[in-house]
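Hey, quick one: can you model this chain's 3D structure?
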Amino acid sequence: MLTAFVDGITKQTRLAGRNLVRQRRRAALAMLTICGGVVTFLLAGGFINWILDSMRESTIHSQLGHVQIVRPGYLRDGLGDPYSYLLPADTDAVTAERVPALRTVAPRLAFSGLVSKGEETISFVGEGIDPIGEADIGQSVMIVQGQDLTAASPDSALLGVGLAANLGAAPGDQIVLLATTASGGINAIELTIAGLFATPAKAYDDSVLRIPIDSARTLMRVEGATSWVVLLERTRATEAALAHLRTHLSAEEFEIVPWYDLADFYNKTVELFTRQVDVVRLLIALIVILSIGNTLSMAVVERTSEIGTSMALGVRRRGIMTMFLAEGALLGMVGGVVGVTAGILLAAVISFVGIPMPPPPGMDMGFIGEISISPGLALDAFLLAFVTTLLASLFPAWKASRMNIVDALRQQR
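Sure thing. Here's the predicted structure for all 413 residues.
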């Protein structure tokens, strides 16, 4: 039975191929429409894929890491009293034996207050960091002036470019940080600006400064950290790392938070771009269905006498319908393969040249774009071509199968 089925499919495919070859111009026009739709979908989807991948990695390597470990309730209630949720100063509870693909783990101490330079005083949000531990985590943090904290003295600070501009500060300037300590008192320290940094998030750069975590502890008169930031060797290892951390760390003492639960702006961007890709997919599907449907309908009209002769020789209506459906399926299959191949090659060329892009909303730097076509996107494009072409052939195939034999044969005269 299986052999007979395969033989039937093979015969229908050969017959459909011969019919398409006989109608070269019409088949070429249909193929061009399908390939154009597939290439357009691949380029649009691939560009959005690249943007989202780059944004994800920039978010991870500039602010969040792959996983953050905090005290239970810190993210919900810690804004008002963060020092009631302090973790130990050391991160010995997170080791490579417990976390697969662990690259580094670094403590952070969050704080806020006022920063002064001369007569200027503005508010800031601060992060006390381990400069050595943060070197890998902050790969997307660009030092635009000066140097980072790994090469600076312990009494140094890094300022976001927006915060520095509002303060009128530059590398080498002296600043004073004033903050309310954990016990409710007032404390201040004097630091030297080591450098200015920029990240893809402009709002972050406008308000944040970073200092060594020991200086932050001195300023706030506390020990410990408000969070431990875990960086993995690769992002796809996040779920496995979460499972291991939740197995080895007590839920009563630690809350394990993946990066995607903290990346609100990224999540909203993914939702927006996903809707845009769906709109593109719908528009291309409509264009293909209307174009291929019209092409096959014209083919049915031109081959009316052929259809009548076939039915007179004993071909059933189901056979006529199957013949036109096979032609549509073959068009979609070949058009999908050719379109995907052309799209991948064109994406490689465009990515090699680069796409200069202005700063997107919420960011302060432009970038050179590329097109990233994943296997899932390529499969989606092929299915778009195949399914829409098959749908487009349904009505012409049904119309051909419902012809009256006598009326169809009269077309020969």
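One thing worth noting: The two ends are 42 Å apart (CA to CA).
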